[in-house]
């Protein structure tokens, strides 16, 4: 090991890269609103945590006072951009080398004088106590390290859906993310800290190890027995004695080989001890974290290998995307107890978080440059409680996303291309949505850079934010738009479309009423589907809409695929309609304009007429041209004024509007607004309708519900249509009845 | 020792024949066998048992002392010369050593009385020793060399199961050698820590930890009922291997001597180095090692430590790790008696006391660490017994 240590001395000539790649104000963001600081100082890395309030521009819609007969009568509602204050958690990780610079920067930008203490944990908390107190003028209040780690671990497991993953070196996708299990306990947490003082040297040692051959240093079973030791099930390649071959004075061993042997020795030993503890306490989940892991494929592989070997697969080695932050998160939570942070749900902000970076020896230069500098995690507080839909058949196995792009390389390549290709259009619309703000183009340009950078990162590290999915790509774009104060780029488009569609509402309803019952049912379904063609979010459609604004509802109906559709359960649905009405239907709606007004509302109207109560669930916040809860409130009011069926429905609370809790074009049925979930339970909902590509195809296509369900969507993407064996504007109409319920099931299903 | 030899199948009191390992015989000292039948089944001299380990070859040799004049005449010259060579010397070649202090005198084995000798040499010198045997024309003798452990496959040996030999050897030596087994009284009090004999009369269940180059941990429930619980590659070979790399030493003895002069706390980072004292919340005393070799990340500290410190830290690291794993196994298997054997413990009181301390301290007195005087030779003894069984 003298030679091992020699690795350090040979590299000590390397001057530490002290350049801070990002300007500090992009690292320590919102310091002016910051309060409640916590710091976790390890042997080599410092993790800073603080809470801030973020002022966001949000688009609000407000109904005009129609009784006043104002001049605005050509517009349905008023859009105003308002400031909204939301809570955000900031976590920043940097090397101890920068600690003084960082403290100085923080001091200069700290405005809030209420802050008196800083919670501190980690081995270095003691060492840097005086420096922190002197620089920041805050009293250092130390917290127990282990307690902080556990608190932090519980927090990330509860709040970040794809936090934990298993690592498989030779699989198509090395990272397999675990879906959040409703019950996170019990688990074993193994923190492999070190007090390693210099990151680079440690990483270089690992790189060295990855090039070595441990068999020249280690004594293997076959070196002793000539082969395997069959009766004990010990294979010949198993290490019998680590460093057993180096017990000789007169032989030199390559550094790489010794480093590799050491790595195996330490990893196996940790794995073995972890297994023994897991067995003793009867635990099957073991999370590994700490400096030794830090996303290193090499150590994750050796630890996983060791755990698999010693437990024969009974215990799972799990790693965490934010393992480095656990102590800081825990210390922060200790300090913020009076704010009850655990009462809220928090969501990872993709725009402000760096994501998991690999430090593998063959990583690309872009990441290499970053790995030695700053890493950030930001989490936004959700103002409302999120819970799972009570109607999920098996909540613990529910995965919202239909395709995991981390595993499906072909699909990943397409969608990354697709999102990059659509970026220009998004930027243009963002600018157009704020015609009165001269600096909008500049901000839009920043948005473009940020999102493009995210896409590039994801191309290299698809697992950076957990499983890569169409949903995560869409959500990342929304987060980036919000970050640059484009809260609702489609607000004006939505407004115009809603206005237009509303003019045709009565005509459409009357036309439907004229039809015989049988014909009307098909027309209603076709109407929802045709309405769903109107979607600015889908590139194929936005092209047509932009080039030909006259593209109307009737035209859309003609564009629709003839029956039988790509997935066609209409006959089963029709049979069902002949039976008793549903008690209550929960309808997750999609786009504004033609979709909601001419497609969905008439369908809902028919349900109401059948005696079925309807809960309309729409987004809490804007996403693309999806109708928001705020907009839908106004729309239904206006429709109610024209249509007594809707009016009485609203009045008698047989038609209810709720927010979904989401601001995404997709839908995660395990994170829905609590009010929605309560209502669903109270009204004994027995039908769930999910509409649109984002909610019914990209997500929830395979979602199994404990009641009847309808998934309706038009495929507005030719690549996806191709993949599904259909064509552009192919229709998916999936009607499912849970197993055991007496009804014909439509087994027509396509593998996505 | 009656009952040890495989006897005439028709003879009552004898166990079932056959080499099957599942049918074990008991060491029934009351079984009386007629001398002629014993003689019939007795293997020809010389009687050897060998255990080829990753680092050392352990050889036990039974020297008959009851040779009759008639036998003396019959005895071929080669056999005589082996006997003389082995018993008159205490060192063989450059590296072979006879552990005279372990010799068992006036032992009765298969109806013969004699002395049991314990010899060891490095595994890497095995070819030299075999050549020596050839030079002395040992190979002309009708000898079956019963061997356990590893060894090159090219060698034509009667190979036996290592762990069976080990257990058998432990039980046999303990039955013939008074005060073979001992423990340390007051292991957590250095001033009053003394060696005391431990009668291993009813040894089951026991955890048998064999620390050779690597480590095997066996749970033994009876002579025939045992399992390998786990093992670790961090064993005696690791200690010596790392010591050679770190200090440039070349032998186990050198490494141990250096370790005895060193101070591991200069190399290791202790709990108190991080927390300033005990980590009370989790019951970690300040003197506990928080990070083995943890201080060696600092350049200044690297410059202040001696080779002896490094050797001591290596010894402490390896020993504590074995202690940790052993303790967890004992908890999982619900066994309180832990017997440590293997050549890592040879002349290594430091490690023995450390293990005794660790077992006692971390189990709050629940676990007892036991040691055996013939540390590393039990596999070879087991192999010899097997020879006498199955000849």
From TrEMBL, chain A:
Which of UniProt's keywords are assigned here? ATP-binding, Coenzyme A biosynthesis, Hydrolase, Manganese, Metal-binding, Nickel, Nitration, Nucleotide-binding
Q: Which Pfam families does this entry report, sorted A to Z?
A: ARMT1-like_dom, Fumble
Query: Where on the tree of life does the source sit, at the highest rank?
Result: Eukaryota
Q: Which GO terms describe its molecular function?
A: ATP binding; hydrolase activity; metal ion binding; pantothenate kinase activity
What's one GO BP annotation on this UniProt entry?
coenzyme A biosynthetic process
Q: Which residues form the Damage-control phosphatase ARMT1-like metal-binding domain?
A: 423-727
| Required cofactor names | Mn(2+); Ni(2+)
Catalytic activity field: (R)-4'-phospho-S-sulfopantetheine + H2O = (R)-S-sulfopantetheine + phosphate; (R)-4'-phosphopantetheine sulfonate + H2O = (R)-pantetheine sulfonate + phosphate; (R)-4'-phosphopantetheine + H2O = (R)-pantetheine + phosphate
Name any GO cellular component annotation.
cytosol
Q: How does it assemble?
A: Homodimer. Interacts with PKM.
Role description: Phosphatase which shows a preference for 4'-phosphopantetheine and its oxidatively damaged forms (sulfonate or S-sulfonate), providing strong indirect evidence that the phosphatase activity pre-empts damage in the coenzyme A (CoA) pathway. Hydrolyzing excess 4'-phosphopantetheine could constitute a directed overflow mechanism to prevent its oxidation to the S-sulfonate, sulfonate, or other forms. Hydrolyzing 4'-phosphopantetheine sulfonate or S-sulfonate would forestall their conversion to inactive forms of CoA and acyl carrier protein.
| Family of this protein | Belongs to the type II pantothenate kinase family. In the N-terminal section; belongs to the type II pantothenate kinase family.
Q: What is this protein called?
A: 4'-phosphopantetheine phosphatase
Which species is listed as the source? Neogobius melanostomus (round goby)
From TrEMBL, chain B:
Give an example GO cellular component term for this record: cytosol
Q: Which SUPFAM superfamilies match?
A: Actin-like ATPase domain
What is its subcellular localisation? Cytoplasm
Give its E.C. classification number.
2.7.1.33
The record's Gene Ontology biological-process terms are:
coenzyme A biosynthetic process
| GO MF annotation: an example | ATP binding
This protein's source sits in the domain of life called Eukaryota
Instruction: State the residue spans of region: Disordered.
Output: 1-26
For this protein, the record's Pfam families field holds: Fumble
Looking up InterPro entries in the UniProt record yields: ATPase_NBD, Type_II_PanK
Q: Which pathway does it take part in?
A: Cofactor biosynthesis; coenzyme A biosynthesis; CoA from (R)-pantothenate: step 1/5
Keywords, A to Z, come to: ATP-binding, Coenzyme A biosynthesis, Cytoplasm, Kinase, Nucleotide-binding, Transferase
Which sequence ranges form a coiled-coil region, renumbered to this chain?
Answer: none
PANTHER family recorded: PANTOTHENATE KINASE, PANTOTHENATE KINASE 2, MITOCHONDRIAL
Member of which family? Belongs to the type II pantothenate kinase family.
Q: What does this protein do?
A: Catalyzes the phosphorylation of pantothenate to generate 4'-phosphopantothenate in the first and rate-determining step of coenzyme A (CoA) synthesis.
The name of this protein is Pantothenate kinase 3
């Amino acid at each position: 090991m003298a030679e091992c240590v020699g690795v350090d001395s040979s590299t000590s000539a390397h001057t530490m890269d002290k350049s801070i790649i990002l300007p500090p104000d992009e690292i320590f963001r919102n310091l002016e609103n910051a309060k409640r600081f916590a710091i976790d100082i390890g042997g080599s890395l410092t993790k800073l945590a603080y809470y801030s309030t973020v002022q966001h521009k949000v688009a609000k819609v407000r109904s005009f006072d129609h009784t006043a007969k104002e001049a605005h009568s050509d517009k349905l509602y008023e859009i105003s951009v308002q400031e909204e204050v939301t809570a955000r958690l900031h976590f920043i990780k940097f090397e101890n080398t920068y600690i003084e610079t960082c403290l100085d920067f923080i001091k200069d930008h700290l405005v809030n004088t209420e802050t008196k203490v800083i919670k501190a944990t980690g081995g270095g908390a003691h060492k840097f106590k005086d420096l922190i107190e002197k620089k920041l003028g805050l009293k250092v209040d130390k917290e127990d390290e282990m307690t902080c780690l556990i608190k932090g671990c519980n927090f990330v497991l509860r709040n970040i859906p794809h936090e934990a993953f298993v690592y498989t070196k030779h699989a198509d996708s090395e990272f397999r993310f675990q879906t959040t299990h409703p019950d996170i306990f019990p688990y074993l947490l193994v923190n492999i800290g070190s007090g390693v003082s210099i990151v680079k040297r440690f990483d270089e040692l690992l790189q060295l190890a990855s090039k070595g051959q441990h068999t020249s240093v280690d004594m293997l079973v076959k070196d002793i027995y000539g082969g395997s030791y069959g009766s004990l099930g010990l294979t010949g390649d198993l290490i019998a004695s680590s460093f057993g071959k180096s017990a000789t004075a007169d032989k030199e061993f390559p550094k790489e080989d010794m480093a590799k042997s050491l790595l195996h020795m330490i990893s196996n030993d940790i794995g073995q001890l972890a297994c023994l503890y897991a067995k003793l306490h009867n635990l099957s989940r073991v999370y590994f974290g700490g400096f030794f892991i830090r996303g290193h494929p090499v150590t994750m592989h050796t630890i996983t290998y060791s755990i698999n070997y010693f437990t024969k697969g009974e215990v799972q080695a799990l790693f965490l995307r934010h393992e480095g932050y656990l102590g800081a998160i825990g210390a922060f939570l200790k300090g913020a107890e009076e704010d009850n942070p655990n009462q809220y749900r928090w969501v990872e902000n993709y725009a402000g978080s760096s994501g998991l970076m690999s430090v593998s020896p063959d990583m690309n230069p872009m990441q290499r440059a970053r790995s030695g500098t700053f890493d950030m995690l930001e989490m936004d507080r959700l103002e409302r409680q999120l819970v799972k839909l009570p109607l999920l058949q098996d909540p613990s196995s529910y995965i919202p996303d239909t395709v995991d792009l981390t595993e499906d390389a072909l699909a990943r390549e397409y969608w990354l291309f697709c999102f990059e290709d659509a970026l220009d259009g998004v930027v243009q619309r963002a600018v157009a949505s704020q015609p009165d703000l001269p600096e909008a183009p500049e901000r839009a340009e920043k948005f473009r850079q940020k999102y493009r950078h995210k896409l590039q990162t994801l191309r290299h590290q698809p697992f950076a934010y957990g499983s890569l999915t169409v949903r995560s790509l869409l959500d990342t774009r929304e987060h980036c738009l919000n970050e640059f104060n484009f809260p609702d780029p489609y607000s004006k488009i939505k407004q115009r479309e809603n206005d237009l569609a509303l003019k045709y509402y009565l005509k459409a309803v009357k036309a439907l009423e004229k039809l015989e019952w049988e014909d009307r049912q098909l027309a209603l379904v076709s109407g929802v589907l045709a309405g769903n063609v109107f979607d600015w979010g889908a590139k194929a459609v936005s092209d047509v809409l932009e080039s030909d604004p006259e593209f109307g509802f009737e035209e859309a109906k003609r564009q629709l695929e003839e029956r039988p559709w790509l997935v066609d359960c209409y006959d089963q649905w029709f049979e069902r309609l002949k039976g008793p009405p549903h008690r209550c239907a929960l309808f997750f709606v999609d786009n504004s304009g033609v979709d909601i007004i001419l497609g969905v509302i008439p369908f809902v109207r028919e349900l109401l007429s059948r005696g079925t109560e309807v809960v309309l669930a729409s987004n809490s916040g804007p996403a693309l041209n999806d109708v928001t809860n705020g907009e839908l409130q106004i729309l239904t009011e206006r429709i109610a004024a024209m249509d007594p069926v809707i009016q009485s429905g609203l009045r008698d609370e047989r038609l209810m509007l709720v927010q979904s809790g989401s601001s995404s074009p997709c839908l995660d049925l395990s994170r829905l607004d609590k009010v929605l979930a309560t209502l669903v339970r109270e009204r004994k909902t027995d039908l769930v309708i999910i509409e649109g590509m984002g909610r019914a195809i990209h997500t929830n296509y395979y979602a199994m519900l404990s009641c009847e369900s309808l998934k309706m969507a038009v495929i507005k993407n030719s690549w996806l249509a191709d993949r599904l064996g259909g064509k552009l504007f192919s229709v998916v109409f999936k009607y499912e009845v849970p197993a055991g319920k007496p009804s014909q099931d439509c087994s027509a299903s396509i593998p996505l | 020792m009656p009952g040890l030899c495989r006897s005439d199948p028709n003879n009552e009191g004898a166990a079932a024949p056959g080499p099957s390992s599942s049918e074990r015989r008991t060491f029934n000292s009351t079984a009386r066998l007629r001398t002629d039948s014993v003689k019939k089944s007795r293997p020809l001299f010389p009687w050897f048992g060998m255990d080829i380990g990753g680092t050392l070859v352990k050889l036990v040799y039974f020297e008959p002392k009851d040779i009759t004049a008639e036998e003396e005449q019959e005895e071929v010259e080669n056999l005589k010369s082996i006997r003389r060579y082995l018993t008159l010397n205490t060192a063989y070649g450059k590296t072979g050593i006879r552990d005279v202090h372990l010799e068992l005198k006036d032992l009765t084995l298969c109806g013969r009385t004699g002395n049991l000798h314990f010899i060891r040499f490095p595994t890497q010198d095995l070819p030299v020793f075999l050549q020596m045997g050839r030079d002395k024309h040992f190979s002309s003798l009708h000898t079956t060399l019963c061997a356990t452990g590893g060894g090159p496959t090219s060698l034509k040996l009667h190979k036996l199961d290592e762990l069976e030999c080990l257990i058998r050897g432990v039980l046999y030596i303990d039955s013939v050698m008074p005060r073979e087994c001992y423990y340390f009284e007051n292991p957590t009090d250095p001033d009053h820590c003394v060696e005391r004999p431990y009668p291993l009369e009813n040894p089951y269940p026991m955890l048998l930890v064999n620390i050779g180059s690597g480590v095997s941990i066996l749970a033994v429930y009876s002579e025939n009922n045992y399992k390998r619980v786990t093992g670790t590659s961090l064993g005696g070979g690791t200690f010596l291997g790392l010591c050679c790399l770190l200090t440039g030493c070349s032998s186990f003895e050198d490494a141990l001597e250096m370790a005895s002069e060193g101070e591991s706390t200069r190399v290791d980072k202790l709990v108190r180095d991080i927390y300033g004292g005990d980590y009370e919340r989790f019951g970690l005393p300040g003197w506990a090692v928080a990070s083995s070799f943890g201080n060696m990340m600092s350049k200044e500290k690297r410059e202040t430590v001696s080779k002896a410190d490094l050797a001591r830290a290596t010894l402490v690291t390896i020993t504590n790790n074995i202690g940790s794993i052993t303790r967890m196994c004992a908890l999982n298997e619900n066994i309180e008696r832990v017997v440590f054997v293997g050549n890592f413990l040879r002349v290594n009181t430091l490690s023995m006391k450390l293990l005794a301390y660790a077992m006692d301290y971390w189990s709050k007195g629940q676990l007892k660490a036991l040691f055996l005087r013939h540390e590393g030779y039990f596999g070879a003894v087991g192999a010899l017994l097997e020879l006498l069984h199955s000849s």
